[in-house]
Structure formats: C-alpha cells, structure tokens
Amino acid sequence: MTINWIAIIFSFLVSVVSLYRLIADPIRYGMKRFILLTVIGCITMIGAIIFYWNASLPKVGPIGNGPNESLNWAVFLMFMTLGGCCAVAGAYGIGKHISSEQRDDEDPSN
User: Fold this and answer.
1) How many CB atoms lie within 10 A of CB 46?
2) What residue intervals traverse the membrane (predicted)?
C-alpha cells in the first residue's frame, strides 16, 4: 500500500510543479507543455495500473479484511480517466502546435 501512496504523491507533486511553471511562463514552454502533459497522463495511467495490481494481490490477515473492490475500481477508473484525458489533450496540443508551425512556415506574411 505504501507504493500506491508514493505514486499518488509523486504524480500530484509533478502536476503541481509543472502547472506552476506553465502558468508562470507560458511563452517559454511552447511545445514542452504539451509533451509534459502527455508524460503526466502516461505516468498517471501507469500509476493507476500499479495501484489496481497491488490492491488485487492477496494479503495476509483475517478473512473479513478483503479488498474493497468497488473502491479499488473507482480509484482505478478515476486515475485512468484523468491520465487518458491528459494524454489525449497533450497529443492534441502537439498536433496543433506542429500544424501551426507548418502553416507559419508556408505563409511568411504573418
């Protein structure tokens, strides 16, 4: 269970630090913000898979202390949705950034 909290705290800290940097200086981090968003999404999805795998492992203890499947599924689906949205938004931003750079190269009048 310790690995789960470490992954959640690490993901939260990376998100907060990256958002602070992007908000403080958005022009400096043109394409980097979309790459970072994609990486954060992938890390969050990997963390969700690790969480669910670790929660599903058999534990030693009384019979009544089994895993709470509904809570595990809720946390897993929440983090997978969050990570998927971040990854898709980052990939969309990368595509838009590349297409706008190509458009600017073709039309030098701007």
Assistant:
1) 14
2) 6-23, 35-53, 73-94
Q: What is the pTM of this model?
A: 0.67
The angle subtended at Cα 24 by Cα 30 and Cα 11, nearest 5°, is 80
Residue 67 reports pLDDT greater than 90: no
pLDDT reading at 3 higher than 80: no
Three-state secondary structure of the chain: CHHHHHHHHHHHHHHHHHHHHHHHCCCCCCCHHHHHHHHHHHHHHHHHHHHHHHHHCCCCCCCCCCCCHHHHHHHHHHHHHHHHHHHHHHHHHHHHHHHHHHHHHHCCCC
Cα gap 71→68, rounded to integer Å: 6
Which residue is listed with tokens 């706008």?
A: 100
